[in-house]
Specification:
The protein has 125 residues and is mainly β. The chain has one domain (3-114): Acid Proteases (Cathepsin D, subunit A, domain 1), CATH 2.40.70.10. It is 8% helix and 51% strand. The protein is built from two helices and nine strands; from the N terminus they run E-E-E-H-E-E-E-E-H-E-E. A seven-stranded mixed beta sheet has the order 1-2-7-3-6-5-4. A hairpin with a 2-residue loop joins strand 4 and strand 5. The longest helix has 6 residues, at 96-101. It is globular and about 35 Å long. It starts with a strand and ends in an 11-residue tail after the last strand. The mean pLDDT is 93.
Length: 125
């Protein structure tokens, strides 16, 4: 598992983001969801994050920019993701499914993202 922390842009708002291959899904806090399109789910979804079970009853369409690359993915809205190792509040948890979708890989030794596989176009069969 790898984890990288950095800022991403979401509707011109800088958001502190944890890219975590150990998390399957993507999550955002309400302050980020406020600048996104959201919808209510018919039933809540529970996820174990940071040693506790968190519940979400809203989803968001996360559209943003990572190092100049545009992304769009599904995210669940939860009250609080948690703090990173430095005590900084995480606003977006970018999970493994979204990283796979956008060709994002982690380089833990350098604490940076590898966007060399970012798709310029999708080929669907």
């Amino acid at each position: 598992m790898g984890r990288i922390r950095q800022m991403i842009k979401v509707n011109a708002r800088e958001c502190w983001t944890l890219f975590d291959t150990g998390a399957r899904n993507t999550y955002v806090v309400p302050a980020v969801a406020a600048v996104l399109s959201t919808s209510k789910m018919p039933h809540p979804i529970r996820a174990a994050l940071g040693g506790e079970v968190k519940e979400s009853n809203r989803t968001a369409l996360l559209q943003g920019e990572i190092e100049g690359h545009l992304i769009s993915t599904h995210a669940m809205v939860i009250d609080q993701i948690g703090d990173d190792e430095d005590g900084r509040s995480i606003e977006v948890l970018f999970g493994a499914l979204a990283m796979q979708q956008w060709g994002i890989r982690l380089i833990p030794d350098e604490e940076k993202l590898d966007l060399s596989r970012y798709p310029e176009e999708f080929v669907e069969f």
